[in-house]
User: What shape does this take?
Amino acid sequence: MFRAAHFAWLSLVRQPTRALLGIAGIAAIGALLFDMLLLSRGLVLSFGDLLGQSGFDVRTLASDAPPFTGPPLTGARALAKEIGALPGIEAVLPLRVRDTEMVDAAARPPRPPAGTADDRIGDGSSERTRIHFIGADPRVRSMWTLIDGQDLPADDASPPALVLNQRLASRLGLRVGSRLTLRGRCTDSFDAVPPLTFAVVGIAEFPFDSATAATAAGTLDDVDRLCGETHTDTAEMFMVRSTAHAGAAGAAAAIRAAHPDLYVVTNEELVERFGRVEFSYFRQISTVLAVVTLFFGFLLIAVLLTVSVNQRLAEIAALRAVGLGRTRVVAGVFWESMMLVGAGGILALPLGAALSLWLDAILRRLPGVPARLHFFVFEPRALVLYLGLLTVAALAAALYPMRIVARLPIAATLRREVVS
Assistant: This one.
Protein backbone atom coordinates (compact mmCIF):
# COMPACT_ATOMS: atom_id res chain seq x y z
CA MET A 1 0.00 0.00 0.00
CA PHE A 2 2.85 2.37 0.83
CA ARG A 3 4.50 1.71 -2.53
CA ALA A 4 1.25 2.37 -4.37
CA ALA A 5 0.81 5.64 -2.48
CA HIS A 6 4.42 6.62 -3.28
CA PHE A 7 3.79 5.84 -6.95
CA ALA A 8 0.70 8.10 -6.90
CA TRP A 9 2.65 10.89 -5.21
CA LEU A 10 5.37 10.77 -7.88
CA SER A 11 2.70 10.97 -10.58
CA LEU A 12 1.25 14.13 -9.00
CA VAL A 13 4.52 15.99 -8.39
CA ARG A 14 5.67 15.36 -11.96
CA GLN A 15 2.85 17.65 -13.14
CA PRO A 16 2.47 20.18 -10.32
CA THR A 17 0.39 22.68 -12.30
CA ARG A 18 -2.25 20.11 -13.18
CA ALA A 19 -2.28 18.81 -9.61
CA LEU A 20 -2.62 22.29 -8.08
CA LEU A 21 -5.40 23.27 -10.46
CA GLY A 22 -7.21 20.05 -9.67
CA ILE A 23 -6.87 20.60 -5.93
CA ALA A 24 -8.12 24.19 -6.30
CA GLY A 25 -11.16 23.01 -8.29
CA ILE A 26 -11.96 20.31 -5.75
CA ALA A 27 -11.57 22.84 -2.92
CA ALA A 28 -14.07 25.19 -4.55
CA ILE A 29 -16.56 22.39 -5.17
CA GLY A 30 -16.00 20.97 -1.69
CA ALA A 31 -16.60 24.37 -0.07
CA LEU A 32 -19.97 24.69 -1.80
CA LEU A 33 -20.87 21.10 -0.89
CA PHE A 34 -19.95 21.71 2.76
CA ASP A 35 -22.08 24.88 2.85
CA MET A 36 -25.08 23.08 1.38
CA LEU A 37 -24.80 20.45 4.10
CA LEU A 38 -24.69 23.19 6.74
CA LEU A 39 -27.73 24.86 5.16
CA SER A 40 -29.79 21.66 5.02
CA ARG A 41 -30.30 21.61 8.80
CA GLY A 42 -28.89 24.97 9.84
CA LEU A 43 -32.23 26.76 10.14
CA VAL A 44 -33.78 23.92 12.13
CA LEU A 45 -30.87 23.77 14.58
CA SER A 46 -30.74 27.55 14.97
CA PHE A 47 -34.52 27.76 15.42
CA GLY A 48 -34.41 25.14 18.15
CA ASP A 49 -31.63 27.03 19.92
CA LEU A 50 -33.61 30.26 19.57
CA LEU A 51 -36.67 28.68 21.19
CA GLY A 52 -34.53 27.45 24.06
CA GLN A 53 -33.09 30.93 24.67
CA SER A 54 -36.51 32.18 25.71
CA GLY A 55 -36.35 30.00 28.83
CA PHE A 56 -39.71 28.31 28.11
CA ASP A 57 -40.14 24.88 26.55
CA VAL A 58 -43.94 24.50 26.13
CA ARG A 59 -46.47 26.76 24.40
CA THR A 60 -50.22 26.69 25.00
CA LEU A 61 -52.74 28.26 22.61
CA ALA A 62 -56.48 28.18 22.03
CA SER A 63 -56.06 26.54 18.59
CA ASP A 64 -53.38 25.20 16.27
CA ALA A 65 -53.29 28.47 14.31
CA PRO A 66 -49.90 30.24 14.17
CA PRO A 67 -49.15 32.22 17.35
CA PHE A 68 -50.94 35.60 17.66
CA THR A 69 -53.21 34.87 14.68
CA GLY A 70 -55.81 32.55 16.22
CA PRO A 71 -58.51 33.01 18.88
CA PRO A 72 -57.38 34.24 22.31
CA LEU A 73 -57.31 32.30 25.56
CA THR A 74 -60.18 33.63 27.69
CA GLY A 75 -60.07 33.84 31.48
CA ALA A 76 -56.31 34.05 31.13
CA ARG A 77 -55.44 34.84 34.75
CA ALA A 78 -57.40 31.97 36.26
CA LEU A 79 -56.35 29.59 33.48
CA ALA A 80 -52.67 30.48 33.92
CA LYS A 81 -52.94 29.92 37.66
CA GLU A 82 -54.65 26.56 37.12
CA ILE A 83 -52.02 25.39 34.61
CA GLY A 84 -49.22 26.62 36.89
CA ALA A 85 -50.55 24.36 39.66
CA LEU A 86 -50.28 21.21 37.50
CA PRO A 87 -47.45 18.74 38.23
CA GLY A 88 -44.32 19.36 36.18
CA ILE A 89 -45.07 23.07 35.61
CA GLU A 90 -42.63 25.62 37.03
CA ALA A 91 -44.02 28.86 35.56
CA VAL A 92 -46.65 30.15 33.12
CA LEU A 93 -46.21 33.44 31.27
CA PRO A 94 -49.33 34.84 29.52
CA LEU A 95 -48.60 36.98 26.46
CA ARG A 96 -50.54 39.47 24.38
CA VAL A 97 -49.06 41.26 21.37
CA ARG A 98 -50.31 44.47 19.76
CA ASP A 99 -49.04 47.08 17.34
CA THR A 100 -48.54 50.57 18.72
CA GLU A 101 -47.13 53.83 17.49
CA MET A 102 -44.99 56.41 19.16
CA VAL A 103 -46.75 59.69 19.86
CA ASP A 104 -43.90 61.41 21.64
CA ALA A 105 -40.66 60.58 23.42
CA ALA A 106 -39.08 62.71 26.09
CA ALA A 107 -36.00 61.75 28.05
CA ARG A 108 -36.08 62.94 31.60
CA PRO A 109 -33.33 61.16 33.48
CA PRO A 110 -31.02 63.05 35.81
CA ARG A 111 -28.79 65.52 33.98
CA PRO A 112 -25.48 63.87 33.11
CA PRO A 113 -22.23 65.15 34.61
CA ALA A 114 -20.52 68.12 33.01
CA GLY A 115 -18.45 67.28 29.99
CA THR A 116 -20.65 64.33 28.88
CA ALA A 117 -23.23 64.21 26.11
CA ASP A 118 -26.85 64.82 27.10
CA ASP A 119 -29.09 62.36 25.18
CA ARG A 120 -32.37 63.86 26.38
CA ILE A 121 -34.91 64.53 23.66
CA GLY A 122 -37.99 66.61 24.41
CA ASP A 123 -38.64 68.48 21.23
CA GLY A 124 -42.24 67.23 20.92
CA SER A 125 -41.51 65.56 17.62
CA SER A 126 -44.67 64.40 15.88
CA GLU A 127 -42.93 61.65 13.94
CA ARG A 128 -44.77 58.34 14.41
CA THR A 129 -42.77 55.16 14.89
CA ARG A 130 -44.49 51.76 14.68
CA ILE A 131 -43.61 49.65 17.74
CA HIS A 132 -44.32 45.99 18.45
CA PHE A 133 -45.75 45.89 22.00
CA ILE A 134 -45.61 42.70 24.10
CA GLY A 135 -47.87 42.46 27.15
CA ALA A 136 -46.71 39.95 29.76
CA ASP A 137 -47.25 39.06 33.41
CA PRO A 138 -44.50 40.91 35.34
CA ARG A 139 -44.70 38.42 38.21
CA VAL A 140 -43.20 35.68 35.99
CA ARG A 141 -39.58 35.72 34.89
CA SER A 142 -39.59 37.24 31.42
CA MET A 143 -38.40 35.70 28.16
CA TRP A 144 -36.17 38.66 27.26
CA THR A 145 -32.63 39.32 28.47
CA LEU A 146 -31.92 42.58 30.27
CA ILE A 147 -28.96 44.66 29.09
CA ASP A 148 -29.48 47.73 31.24
CA GLY A 149 -31.84 48.81 34.01
CA GLN A 150 -34.38 46.47 35.57
CA ASP A 151 -37.33 44.33 34.56
CA LEU A 152 -41.00 45.26 34.80
CA PRO A 153 -42.05 45.75 38.42
CA ALA A 154 -44.55 43.27 39.84
CA ASP A 155 -46.70 46.07 41.30
CA ASP A 156 -48.51 48.79 39.40
CA ALA A 157 -46.37 51.87 38.84
CA SER A 158 -47.19 55.40 37.83
CA PRO A 159 -46.32 56.06 35.08
CA PRO A 160 -46.44 52.44 33.83
CA ALA A 161 -43.07 50.78 33.23
CA LEU A 162 -41.68 49.81 29.83
CA VAL A 163 -38.79 47.67 28.59
CA LEU A 164 -37.36 48.46 25.14
CA ASN A 165 -35.10 46.62 22.78
CA GLN A 166 -31.71 48.16 22.14
CA ARG A 167 -32.44 49.21 18.56
CA LEU A 168 -35.53 51.21 19.55
CA ALA A 169 -33.71 52.84 22.44
CA SER A 170 -30.81 53.86 20.19
CA ARG A 171 -33.09 55.07 17.42
CA LEU A 172 -35.11 57.32 19.72
CA GLY A 173 -32.22 58.31 21.96
CA LEU A 174 -33.87 56.78 25.02
CA ARG A 175 -32.30 55.35 28.13
CA VAL A 176 -33.41 54.16 31.55
CA GLY A 177 -35.52 56.94 33.06
CA SER A 178 -36.79 58.31 29.74
CA ARG A 179 -40.47 58.80 28.92
CA LEU A 180 -42.20 57.33 25.87
CA THR A 181 -45.81 58.00 24.85
CA LEU A 182 -47.57 55.30 22.82
CA ARG A 183 -50.96 54.85 21.22
CA GLY A 184 -52.36 51.39 20.46
CA ARG A 185 -53.24 50.44 16.88
CA CYS A 186 -55.85 47.84 17.88
CA THR A 187 -58.81 49.02 15.74
CA ASP A 188 -59.42 51.05 12.62
CA SER A 189 -60.34 54.03 14.81
CA PHE A 190 -57.13 53.88 16.83
CA ASP A 191 -56.73 57.69 16.69
CA ALA A 192 -59.65 57.96 19.11
CA VAL A 193 -57.80 55.91 21.76
CA PRO A 194 -55.97 58.17 24.24
CA PRO A 195 -52.18 57.73 24.30
CA LEU A 196 -50.37 56.32 27.31
CA THR A 197 -47.06 57.59 28.69
CA PHE A 198 -44.53 55.04 29.93
CA ALA A 199 -41.33 55.25 31.94
CA VAL A 200 -38.44 53.27 30.44
CA VAL A 201 -37.09 51.01 33.19
CA GLY A 202 -34.92 48.64 31.15
CA ILE A 203 -33.18 47.91 27.85
CA ALA A 204 -33.34 44.27 26.77
CA GLU A 205 -32.74 41.78 23.98
CA PHE A 206 -35.84 39.98 22.72
CA PRO A 207 -35.11 36.50 21.33
CA PHE A 208 -37.27 36.73 18.19
CA ASP A 209 -36.48 40.31 17.17
CA SER A 210 -35.27 40.95 13.64
CA ALA A 211 -32.40 43.32 12.98
CA THR A 212 -34.88 46.14 12.24
CA ALA A 213 -37.52 45.36 14.88
CA ALA A 214 -38.75 48.04 17.28
CA THR A 215 -40.04 46.14 20.31
CA ALA A 216 -41.32 47.18 23.73
CA ALA A 217 -42.76 45.19 26.61
CA GLY A 218 -45.22 46.09 29.35
CA THR A 219 -47.92 44.38 31.35
CA LEU A 220 -51.18 42.77 30.24
CA ASP A 221 -53.09 45.66 31.78
CA ASP A 222 -51.05 48.08 29.68
CA VAL A 223 -52.34 46.33 26.56
CA ASP A 224 -55.91 46.93 27.74
CA ARG A 225 -55.20 50.60 28.34
CA LEU A 226 -53.45 51.04 24.98
CA CYS A 227 -56.38 49.46 23.16
CA GLY A 228 -59.05 51.30 25.16
CA GLU A 229 -60.37 48.04 26.59
CA THR A 230 -61.37 47.21 30.15
CA HIS A 231 -60.17 44.04 31.89
CA THR A 232 -60.42 41.74 28.92
CA ASP A 233 -58.51 39.00 30.79
CA THR A 234 -57.32 37.34 27.60
CA ALA A 235 -53.99 36.14 26.27
CA GLU A 236 -52.87 34.96 22.86
CA MET A 237 -50.43 32.41 24.22
CA PHE A 238 -49.03 30.91 27.41
CA MET A 239 -45.29 30.37 27.57
CA VAL A 240 -44.78 27.44 29.96
CA ARG A 241 -41.56 26.45 31.73
CA SER A 242 -41.41 22.82 32.85
CA THR A 243 -39.58 21.48 35.87
CA ALA A 244 -36.30 19.66 35.37
CA HIS A 245 -37.85 16.42 36.64
CA ALA A 246 -40.89 16.35 34.35
CA GLY A 247 -39.36 17.89 31.24
CA ALA A 248 -41.25 19.46 28.36
CA ALA A 249 -42.99 16.24 27.35
CA GLY A 250 -44.28 15.60 30.88
CA ALA A 251 -45.50 19.19 31.29
CA ALA A 252 -47.26 19.10 27.92
CA ALA A 253 -48.94 15.80 28.77
CA ALA A 254 -50.21 17.23 32.07
CA ILE A 255 -51.72 20.27 30.33
CA ARG A 256 -53.35 18.14 27.61
CA ALA A 257 -54.89 15.85 30.23
CA ALA A 258 -56.32 18.76 32.25
CA HIS A 259 -57.38 20.87 29.25
CA PRO A 260 -57.92 18.72 26.15
CA ASP A 261 -59.51 21.67 24.33
CA LEU A 262 -56.22 23.62 24.29
CA TYR A 263 -53.45 23.28 21.74
CA VAL A 264 -50.20 22.38 23.51
CA VAL A 265 -46.85 22.08 21.73
CA THR A 266 -43.29 21.62 22.99
CA ASN A 267 -40.18 23.24 21.53
CA GLU A 268 -39.11 19.90 20.07
CA GLU A 269 -42.46 19.47 18.34
CA LEU A 270 -42.27 23.00 16.97
CA VAL A 271 -38.78 22.38 15.60
CA GLU A 272 -39.91 19.11 14.00
CA ARG A 273 -42.94 20.83 12.43
CA PHE A 274 -40.96 23.77 11.09
CA GLY A 275 -38.27 21.48 9.75
CA ARG A 276 -40.89 19.42 7.94
CA VAL A 277 -43.07 22.27 6.65
CA GLU A 278 -41.87 25.87 6.93
CA PHE A 279 -38.13 25.20 6.50
CA SER A 280 -38.48 22.35 3.98
CA TYR A 281 -37.67 24.72 1.10
CA PHE A 282 -34.13 25.29 2.36
CA ARG A 283 -33.62 21.57 2.89
CA GLN A 284 -34.81 20.79 -0.62
CA ILE A 285 -32.73 23.46 -2.32
CA SER A 286 -29.64 22.48 -0.32
CA THR A 287 -30.15 18.83 -1.30
CA VAL A 288 -30.46 19.69 -4.99
CA LEU A 289 -27.41 21.94 -4.92
CA ALA A 290 -25.41 19.35 -2.96
CA VAL A 291 -26.22 16.64 -5.51
CA VAL A 292 -25.32 18.93 -8.44
CA THR A 293 -22.10 20.00 -6.71
CA LEU A 294 -21.13 16.41 -5.95
CA PHE A 295 -21.79 15.43 -9.57
CA PHE A 296 -19.50 18.18 -10.88
CA GLY A 297 -16.88 17.16 -8.33
CA PHE A 298 -17.11 13.58 -9.60
CA LEU A 299 -16.69 14.77 -13.21
CA LEU A 300 -13.71 16.96 -12.32
CA ILE A 301 -11.87 14.16 -10.51
CA ALA A 302 -12.69 11.61 -13.22
CA VAL A 303 -11.45 13.91 -16.01
CA LEU A 304 -8.23 14.74 -14.16
CA LEU A 305 -7.42 11.09 -13.50
CA THR A 306 -8.39 9.94 -16.98
CA VAL A 307 -6.22 12.60 -18.65
CA SER A 308 -3.34 11.77 -16.32
CA VAL A 309 -3.59 8.06 -17.08
CA ASN A 310 -3.91 8.56 -20.85
CA GLN A 311 -0.80 10.74 -20.86
CA ARG A 312 1.17 8.01 -19.08
CA LEU A 313 -0.07 4.89 -20.88
CA ALA A 314 3.31 4.17 -22.43
CA GLU A 315 5.07 4.69 -19.12
CA ILE A 316 2.62 2.44 -17.31
CA ALA A 317 2.99 -0.27 -20.01
CA ALA A 318 6.78 -0.11 -19.68
CA LEU A 319 6.58 -0.46 -15.89
CA ARG A 320 4.26 -3.41 -16.29
CA ALA A 321 6.68 -4.97 -18.79
CA VAL A 322 9.60 -4.80 -16.37
CA GLY A 323 7.61 -6.49 -13.61
CA LEU A 324 5.43 -3.89 -11.85
CA GLY A 325 2.25 -5.68 -10.79
CA ARG A 326 -1.19 -4.76 -12.10
CA THR A 327 -2.58 -4.39 -8.57
CA ARG A 328 0.12 -1.89 -7.67
CA VAL A 329 -0.53 0.25 -10.76
CA VAL A 330 -4.30 0.19 -10.21
CA ALA A 331 -3.80 1.05 -6.55
CA GLY A 332 -1.61 3.96 -7.63
CA VAL A 333 -4.51 5.46 -9.59
CA PHE A 334 -6.77 4.99 -6.58
CA TRP A 335 -4.31 6.74 -4.26
CA GLU A 336 -3.86 9.56 -6.77
CA SER A 337 -7.61 10.17 -6.62
CA MET A 338 -7.63 10.05 -2.82
CA MET A 339 -4.70 12.49 -2.57
CA LEU A 340 -6.34 15.00 -4.88
CA VAL A 341 -9.67 14.79 -3.08
CA GLY A 342 -8.04 14.75 0.35
CA ALA A 343 -5.97 17.88 -0.28
CA GLY A 344 -8.87 19.72 -1.94
CA GLY A 345 -11.35 18.56 0.70
CA ILE A 346 -9.21 19.81 3.57
CA LEU A 347 -8.71 23.19 1.91
CA ALA A 348 -12.46 23.37 1.31
CA LEU A 349 -13.30 23.39 5.03
CA PRO A 350 -11.89 26.85 5.94
CA LEU A 351 -12.99 28.16 2.53
CA GLY A 352 -16.51 26.84 3.10
CA ALA A 353 -16.60 28.24 6.64
CA ALA A 354 -15.68 31.71 5.39
CA LEU A 355 -18.20 31.46 2.54
CA SER A 356 -20.95 30.35 4.93
CA LEU A 357 -20.38 33.39 7.17
CA TRP A 358 -20.72 35.70 4.16
CA LEU A 359 -23.85 33.97 2.83
CA ASP A 360 -25.36 33.82 6.32
CA ALA A 361 -24.90 37.57 6.76
CA ILE A 362 -26.70 38.18 3.45
CA LEU A 363 -29.65 35.89 4.22
CA ARG A 364 -30.10 37.28 7.73
CA ARG A 365 -30.82 40.69 6.19
CA LEU A 366 -34.10 39.35 4.80
CA PRO A 367 -37.13 41.18 6.25
CA GLY A 368 -38.60 39.61 9.37
CA VAL A 369 -35.74 37.19 10.02
CA PRO A 370 -34.83 37.12 13.75
CA ALA A 371 -31.40 38.62 14.33
CA ARG A 372 -30.27 35.55 16.27
CA LEU A 373 -31.39 33.07 13.62
CA HIS A 374 -28.67 31.54 11.43
CA PHE A 375 -29.00 29.72 8.12
CA PHE A 376 -25.63 27.93 8.26
CA VAL A 377 -24.93 26.05 11.49
CA PHE A 378 -22.06 23.62 12.03
CA GLU A 379 -22.75 20.19 13.46
CA PRO A 380 -20.51 17.08 13.53
CA ARG A 381 -23.09 15.23 11.43
CA ALA A 382 -22.50 17.62 8.52
CA LEU A 383 -18.72 17.09 8.67
CA VAL A 384 -19.08 13.30 8.73
CA LEU A 385 -21.50 13.38 5.79
CA TYR A 386 -19.20 15.74 3.89
CA LEU A 387 -16.20 13.43 4.31
CA GLY A 388 -18.30 10.42 3.35
CA LEU A 389 -19.63 12.03 0.17
CA LEU A 390 -16.15 13.14 -0.91
CA THR A 391 -14.81 9.64 -0.33
CA VAL A 392 -17.60 8.12 -2.42
CA ALA A 393 -16.94 10.68 -5.18
CA ALA A 394 -13.21 9.88 -5.15
CA LEU A 395 -13.86 6.15 -5.38
CA ALA A 396 -16.44 6.50 -8.15
CA ALA A 397 -14.27 8.89 -10.17
CA ALA A 398 -11.29 6.53 -9.95
CA LEU A 399 -13.18 3.49 -11.30
CA TYR A 400 -12.89 4.31 -15.01
CA PRO A 401 -9.16 5.23 -15.05
CA MET A 402 -8.47 2.18 -12.84
CA ARG A 403 -10.27 0.05 -15.42
CA ILE A 404 -8.13 1.55 -18.20
CA VAL A 405 -4.94 0.67 -16.32
CA ALA A 406 -6.13 -2.80 -15.35
CA ARG A 407 -7.05 -3.75 -18.95
CA LEU A 408 -4.11 -2.03 -20.59
CA PRO A 409 -2.58 -4.25 -23.37
CA ILE A 410 1.14 -4.02 -22.62
CA ALA A 411 2.56 -5.23 -25.96
CA ALA A 412 0.14 -3.24 -28.13
CA THR A 413 0.71 -0.07 -26.12
CA LEU A 414 4.51 -0.33 -26.38
CA ARG A 415 4.32 -1.09 -30.12
CA ARG A 416 2.05 1.94 -30.69
CA GLU A 417 4.44 4.13 -28.69
CA VAL A 418 7.47 2.99 -30.79
CA VAL A 419 5.60 3.49 -34.08
CA SER A 420 4.36 6.95 -33.09
Notes: The chain has two domains: 2-51+278-419, 72-238. The longest strand covers residues 89-106. Confidence is low (pLDDT under 50) at residues 107-127.
